[in-house]
Structures are given as structure tokens and as C-alpha cells.
Design a protein that fits this description.
Blueprint: E1 5-7, H1 9-17, E2 22-28, H2 34-45, E3 50-53, H3 55-61, E4 76-80, H4 88-98, E5 103-108, H5 113-125, E6 130-134, H6 143-149, E7 158-161, H7 164-173, E8 177-187, E9 197-202, H8 210-213, E10 218-221, H9 233-254
Parallel strand pairs: 2-3, 5-6, 5-9, 6-7, 8-9, 8-10
Antiparallel strand pairs: 1-4, 2-4
Length: 255
Amino acid sequence: MTEDIIIGRNPVTEALRAEREIETIFIQQNLTDGPLGRVIGLARDRRIPVRRVPKKKLDEMTREVPGGAPLNHQGVVAKAALMKYASLDDMLSLAEKKGEAPFIIALDGITDPHNLGAIVRSAEVFGAHGVVIPKNRSASMNAAAMKAASGAEEFIPVAKVGNLSNAIGEMKEKGLWIACADMSGVRADKADLKGPLCLVIGSEGSGVSRIVREKCDITVSIEVLGKVDSLNASCAAAVLMYEKRRQTGLADDDI
């Protein structure tokens, strides 16, 4: 499956609203409900061709591997230009424009596109100014990631960097505090996460790599009460993002 397609009703709708460059929209034959009608209306307004195709065609377009199960396309697929990645400067500029302290999520070794997409979605929801991923040893914002992000990638910058350790060093030079997520760290609710912050999330298997960890200023964890001792990477990221925003809100209330 190529990476230049957007899958599902909400992701396609948000891509149209954000004026993403889209070549063609494919809609399943005999489907005429309200959400698909909105997709067709937005496409018509932007003069984007809409093709009615059999469900089999959409299934073939959305298989992650040949012969595998198709993704849940909900009867709509858009063929679009590949996502344009942002830069660190774009993220810092966005924070400045909003009058906020920079809040950036850096991902080290997240290879599952569904996890990547879920983290991008949470980052947008919790007001982060960008997500940074490395070029190597990382999932990319392909169709599966965009489906999991549910359109959030249209509203938050995602940067792909050649060396994550160097990028973190650059953020430190810009005044950001670097917090590494690890079960051995101090409880996040006991740590000071206010102010300019980069939150580093590692892979579920090996966590944050040694070279990246050495660049971090603090290691934070999540208190767990059950018998399972850890969360899925995307769930852990969402919890830590919420804690950061909770502390930021408390700081604002104190002013």
C-alpha cells in the first residue's frame, strides 16, 4: 500500500477542510449517508474529482500488506500528495504565535504506525506544538498512521529529523527542558513539567535509547495500580501530555 492515501470519513473530511492537496476521492458505490455527502460537498467546492467505486477497490487500496486485511476505510479513500513534514522552527514559531511555552513530543523508536498516529492525535488534543520523529528506526506518517491520527496531522506540525539526539540538543539550546518517559523515573505528578518542555517517548520494547536518554534532564513515570506494570506507548504518552497540561493550567490559575 502506498503512503499517499487518506483513509476514513473523518480523516478525509479534515484533510479537505485543511485544504490538503488531494488528487481524487474514491467513494464506495451505493453509500449515500450524511458524512459521505459532506465529503462530496467539500470536494465539489474545491473541484476535486470524486469516483464511485466498488467496495473491493477500496479494500485493495487499503491493505497494509498484499493479501492482508483491509483497513476500516468506512467507504471513502482520498488519494493525496505525501504529507509535508515540518521543522523544529515551525513548531517554535507556532508556540510563539500562540503566546505559549513550547511543548514538543519527541518519539524514539516508535515503529508501529498506529501508535504514531494515536500519539499525534493526543498531541493535537492536548495542545502540543509539534511531534518529532527520526528518519530511521521509526514509523512514518503513512496511511495507517493518518487513519489513527483521525485528521489531527492536518493541524499539528510533524517533523522528521536525521538525528533525534541532535534535535533534542537543539531544543535544549532553545531553552526547552527535556523529560524522558521511563518507569524508573520520578512520578510525573511529582515532577515540574511547567514551562518549555520536550517529552520523549520511547518504544514499548526497549524504551528510550541510551544516547537520547543521556540528553534528557529528567526521567518521569506514571503511577500504576494494577498488576500490569506498564501502558501502551501511545496511552502513556497521552497520560503524560495530560499531566503536562494539568500543571500548565494550575500555573496559569496561580498568576
